[in-house]
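Morning. Coffee machine broken again, so started the prediction first thing and wrote up yesterday's gels while waiting. Chain of 1905 residues, entered below exactly as on the submission form.
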Amino acid sequence: MAPPKSQSKKVSKPALRNVDKGKSKDKISIEDEVPDFPRGGGSSLSREELDEVRGEVDAEFEAEERLLKKRKKQKRTSTSSTTQDDDLGSLFGGGINGKLPRFPNRITLKNICPGMKLWGVVSEVNEKDIVVSLPGGLRGLVRPSEALPPFLHHQPKLLETDTNFLSSVYHVGQLVSCIVLHLDDDKKESGKRKIWLSLRLALLHKNLTLDVIQEGMILSAYVKSMEDHGYIIHFGLPSFSGFMPKESENVEVKIRSGQLVQGVVKSIDRTRKVVYLSSDPDAVSKCVTKDLKGISIDLLVPGMMVNASVRSILENGIMLSFLTYFTGTADMFNLQQTFPSSNWKVDYPQNKKVNARILFIDPSTRAVGLTLNPHLVHNKAPPTLIKVGDIFDQSKVIRIDRGLGLLLEIPSSPVPTPAYVNVSDVADKEVKKLEKNFKEGKLVRARVLGFRHLEGLATGVLKTSAFEGSVFTHSDVRPGMVVKAKVIAVDSFGAIVQFSSGVKALCPLRHMSEFEIVKPRKKFQVGAELVFRILGCKSKRITVTHKKTLVKSKLEILGSYTDATEGLTTHGWITKIENHGCFVRFYNGVQGFAPRSELGLDPGCEISSMYHIEQVVKCRVTSSNPASRRINLSFTTTPSRVFSNELVKPGIVVSGVVERVTPHGIVLDVTAQGHFKGSISPQHLADHCGHAELMKSALRPGYEFDQLLVLDVEGSNLVLSAKHSLVASAQQLPLDVNQVHLNSVLHGYICNIIESGIFIRYLGRLTGFSPRNRATDDRRSSLSEVYQIGQSVRTNVVDVNSETSRITVSLKQSLCSSTDASFIQEYFLVEEKIAKLQLVDSGGSDLRWVEQFNLGSTVKGKVHEIKEFGVVVSFQKYDDVFGFISHYQLSGISVETGSSICTAVLDVSKIERLVDLSLKPAFVNKSKKETTNNQAQKKRKREALGELEVNQTVNAIVEIVKENYLVVSLPSYNNTLGYASRADYNTQNLPHKSVANGESVIATVMALPSPSTSGRLLLLLKSISEASETSSSKRAKRKSSYNVGSLVQAEITEIRPLELRLKFGSSFHGRVHITEVSDDNYAEAPLSNFRFGQSLTARIISKFNMSESVKRGYQWELCIKPSTLAGSGEIEPVKNLSYSTGQLVSGFVYKVDNEWAWLTISRDVKAQIYILDSSSEPNELDEFQKRFSVGRAFSGYVLSCNKEKKLVRLIPHPLLVDPERPACQRDGLTDHSSESMAFHIREGSVLGGRISKILPGVGGLLVQIDPHLYGKVHFTELGDPGVADPLSGYHEGQFVKCKVLEITHSGKGTVHIDLSLRSISDRTQKQELSALNDTVDFAVLMEKIEDLQPNTMVQAYVKNVTPKGCFVMLSRKVDAKVLLSNLSDRYVENPEKEFPVGKLVIGKVVSVEPLSKRVEVTLRTSNAVGASKSDKDALNNLTVGDVISGRVKRVEPYGLFITVDHTNMVGLCHVSEISDNHVDNIDSIHKAGDRVRAKILKVDKERHRISLGMKNSYFNDATSGEIDTKLSSGDALSIGIESTPSPERSSQGRENLDGESVDGKDLFLAEVESRASIPPLEVPLDDTENLDMGDVINQDSGDATNLDTSDDKNKKHAAKKAKRLREQEIIAAEERLLEKDIPRDEDEFEKLVRSSPNSSFVWIKYMAFVLSLADVEKARSIAERALRTINVREELEKLNVWVAYFNLENEYGNPPEEAVAKVFQRALQYCDPKKVHLALLGMYERTEQHKLTDELLNKMVKKFKHSCKVWLRRVQWLLKQSQDGIQSVVNRALLSLPPHKHINFITQTAILEFKCGVPDRGRSLFEKMLREYPKRTDLWSVYLDQEIRLGDADVIRALFERAITLSLPPKKMKFLFKKYLEYEKTLGDDERMEAVKRKAMEYVESSLA
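Came back before lunch.
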């Protein structure tokens, strides 16, 4: 195709401009916003698709755009080209304007709008949206809510749990019909828009109904559910559903609920509203939409296949007609040929028939796009055979579009793919003429830019630059690629760079340089071209780095976890530094971890001192696990040496020399085989926490540790420990969990403390955990106070799990105490080391002085100073060594300062250079003797020590109490000195047990003096070691001869409320239970006679095993009962429970809660008492816990027992049971079983109860009387008779005293219990009431129906109220009914209100039927009841023929019910007896309450019926006067008396009367209907009979007569008239009623508005009344109520209220103007706007608000410019204000008003001028009208009337003379002459009158002639 030259140049520019704009903006949502090309020169391929490929727009387009601008300036044509351009960008509706378009319809971002229906293909299915490729290369988004069927919208959990739900319902390549919801403009960039779509069928099938559906139609539907034989489907509409059989299902496709399917309609069940579909793919693809009559555009759906015929050829497409009425177009890329050549038009002759599918529909412009694409016609998406970025060398040019581009054939496999190359993408340089450079058939090298999935069309590029860059699209990006890019923007977060292909990337701030950049813009300048390395690409977001090390790195790239092979060396950068190592990031988000040991740190060095975040590091992969995405790294690129024979491994002992001391540890050179570095943390220098700090401060480089334990090996660094406990137990320390054995005790050290426990480390990384409850013996202690990190501990292994490698240990001292003296031995050894180090450091003398102070030897010194705490001694040889003698060691010897003394050495502190001395003769003399005879001394010493053996227990005397140890002497062994630690490994931070000098302690010899013990005898105190005694030694100690039955002498150690604790023998503990104290179990406080420390004799009666002993704290059960002590000593074993029901037992309370009291009745058996069993008095139940205090004695009777639990239930009162019946018939007898209940609760029982629930209404109470048993209290049993509100005073949870009235058992096994809360007994009540009934009419509550007799006065409570009356409760078993007529002596308007449920009433029994249990009661007073007899007499007195007076009681269609005056008798006057004439409508003649007279026609005394007649013929003249007098006297007598039937006959008599009724309704219903039929105003105000309604009635009757003779039109007119008269009648009645009986309070007004809810008159009066009380808010609320209440049809009534509301706000609003404006705006929404405006105008005028009036009128004449009334109000206002401008307003009005309103407007304006303005202006207006309409007598009449009103006789006569000279029809002339004559009559001028008559005669004669 060769489009016109001018056009092509004209169109390409905007097209390409759109491309450029689109490319630089939105990245995510829309593929393309560029016009289609080639459509009259526009590009049909979307450049926005390049967004998806390149990421950003190509820079070359800017140059192209400038070129096109030049072209346009050079070759701009006439304005016709502008119209072409407009035509190109618009949608047309297929010939609406009668002009054929030049270009096909197209969808672009500019013309797409909400409501458009589009066909698309799913290109992506994500978790949060679906991406749909649309026609023209646009890209739309669908939210999940818009893609799901409506029946899944209520299942949000489905989407939460199944994140892939969308992908299971939709798939890529699926064709979908969608509708545009809305478009979001990109805020940052203009012209960029997101298209949001909906796939909901409810929107696509909006107007689809069952009537429209025909067989053969294609319909889309959702699969709703899968059934056995098929699928239930949902069309998105609720009006019909569908079914798709499985036989027609495509077996290859798996269908699930919610899936979208297409099917062919096979049949329609219109009665069931079910459509049957077939989903056969062939049938669906071949089915063509039939030509339906009257099909609307709303029923067209995208994807619908139609038969179309070619209508005309357009410049780049074709126009087709289809479905008779519709026209659509197909552009170049939707033709049948995949590769249309330049002569494609030949293939589409006019009227050619083709199959096409609808591509899009725009309902607003009726534009339809079609496609002939063979793939789409077959209902399949075109195949995607190429990928973006692919290069094809052998691409063939198929067509050349001048100035636009090239169509290529890309040799894809298996079939070629069409591609279009835009003119801007043909070459890097500008190409002026494509046809010169390219020929059809030429082969070119092309690269794919993008792909339009719906059309199957690719976008290509031929530029050489497109083949050069390594990154052409996002898909070309590979992590680790080195690329060149240009900086295009620099910000605080980093730099945006662009590759040569236009793809953009981000270089984060931290990657802009090797080091932190302060000023990024200085380093990166916009426009600079730099080298980068790609870090990764995620969601088309590319990240690059400019770090020099990374960019120039030659090492392998680590871009995935699978690439991380062991030994791989690569570059990465540190992202996070922790104490235990570094996290390192690589390419594509891969991350690894380098532990501290692999960082190559020097020992004791901190990580942060060598590394920093974002530093590039070279690292080696040591291990990886791709599945768990974990990589372990090492910063040492060469693996550490493999140690030969594993000489250096955790657990071996090495030596080392200190290299340096750092704050965090000591670095050593380890003298093992090979060269190693080692480090010791400060805590590992000693077992004692205090010594560790001293050691660290004294250490200096060069010091050699001879024994160090290797704890762990970190690379070439050894983690060491100098702790003696660990070094000594190196062989026993575990390295693996398999080496740990249960219950073994291991040395370890604390590596971490958390709130819930402590972690203990052994060798390597082996760690145990001690939970908080196993960490200390005292659980109250805080772990951080008892232990500290690094502390040496002993651990007892309590659990080992090899699978999880978890070790649980205990640190309790009782389980982990030391068994040797290693703790104190290490103390003295380390002390010596520290002393030596300190000496070296201070340069002082060596430790030779210590040799002069051997332990136990005597030394001479001089008293240096005497202080309060002792004596300081100095020594002549050693100035810096001092001695100290405590007061205890002075032994009473007095010394003086300066004196020389001889003392014995007890202890030497080498660190402090302090010697502890003693002057005790025992030490001094011993030392002197030993000194005199050295040989003998050594011998005696050896003898003394020879007697001592290791593990020997000795008694020792404390001589000196040191901070950490004790110095003791052994008196039995020649006062040999010993040394014992005060603490242990696990308790060194706990406060030590206080010990005093001279105190005797027991200790065990653990080590004899030797060099390893620093020459000391080391002991282990018993207080530390006793917890570690073996169980065998304990058993040996505790063996004794105590057996059950033995008598023992015991001492009371504790007195508890229910037991004595005793101690006997050597630390044996026992208990005496309270029931084992006395033979009399009923004694109160049997333990009160005993005292602490008292000795007594007891007999052992039981012994517990060890586990029970530990739990209870004692092992022996003792008894001190006198009978047991006096017995033989044989203790009988405890028998099974043998309590019988009713047996009296006693016990003592040991526990009490809110529900139960627990007793102990023997040492093994417990008892319980339920709170409600404990008493029947509420005040005692409230104090339940006080009454059952712990220790109180209680006796009760057994109700039941449980053998298994050894539990007995007691009650305080005896039971009526068979004494032989055992209580424990079966185990676990439930407390609430019917068996036990039968003996516990019986009729007549008085019980304690608790209110469980207050039942609604008159349901009564639910009272709990047992743990699982409830009784019901009837409403009449809540209190004594006569209580008005029996429920008051009761609340849930309240305790009550109740009496069981009756117990009934149902067949199902349930028990129903009736209770009473009444305080007097039935017998006394009945006696009192019967006596009262004899004397006065006293109302009683009757229990039984047999007690009721007619005329008995009763009390009752209203049970429920019905329209026929109410039911009352006489007692819990007797109910009665009260008829409506018997509720009161007066008329009851609202029974529900006057007789609420629960109300106490007093009445008299009317009738009783004991067999049917029916009781009827009347609530009327005794006078009314007593009138029944007179009624009988009155019936006897009535005779046929009598004329009676009465009042209409109710009106029925069949007649009137009339109450006879002075009686309660009611008679029926049948409709045939009302009048001599036929009566059609009784309501029009008579109403309830009317006074009437009637003649008795029949009296039926048996059936109590009276038939009456009211015909006039029944009344003759003779009797009429008499009747009148009777009537008048009757009126006087009956004032204020309401006629009600006799209560005795109220039901029977009335029902008999109703027997004559036509419809047979029963009495109550008839009465209700009669009340409902009474006009609402008449009854409540009780004044209707006095209304003067004669005229109205006559009028109605007259109308009724006319109705028989008139035609339909007259009937309607008469009906309207009758309705209008009725409304007038009601309004008049309301007004008269208000005038006569104005309501005086709110209640009366409320009654009135309920009666007349639609009367605005009443509502406004109510508002006025409230305003008179100054309650403005209440008036507003009444106005709102009125507006809500008045029926919507009563618009005028509503308007009246709105006007009143205006006035209210105008008077009281704040501010008034705003308040009125708000109400006015609301009124406009409910009423006719013109009426509301006029109403507001009237208010403004009345209140003289001139400014507001003027403003409102100006608005009104604009808003209602066609309203004559509005313009007249404008004129009237101007005239009243005497303003000018009347003429201009009149002229404006005549221009605005329709012509047929002109006469009326001018006439009314003229009248206004006569009345308010200038009469001359009015005359001129009339004259103007009469000139145009001279024969309109109505104008003449109005004109004359206005002149007559002014009264100028000459002017009037002149006007009449003009009028009678007109040639008008005789009838009109007669009117004028008559009017002239009447005017002259008013003046009284006879002569003038005659003249007028004469002129009239002349006119008649002339007309006849």
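The mean pLDDT is 78. Going to sketch it on the whiteboard this afternoon.
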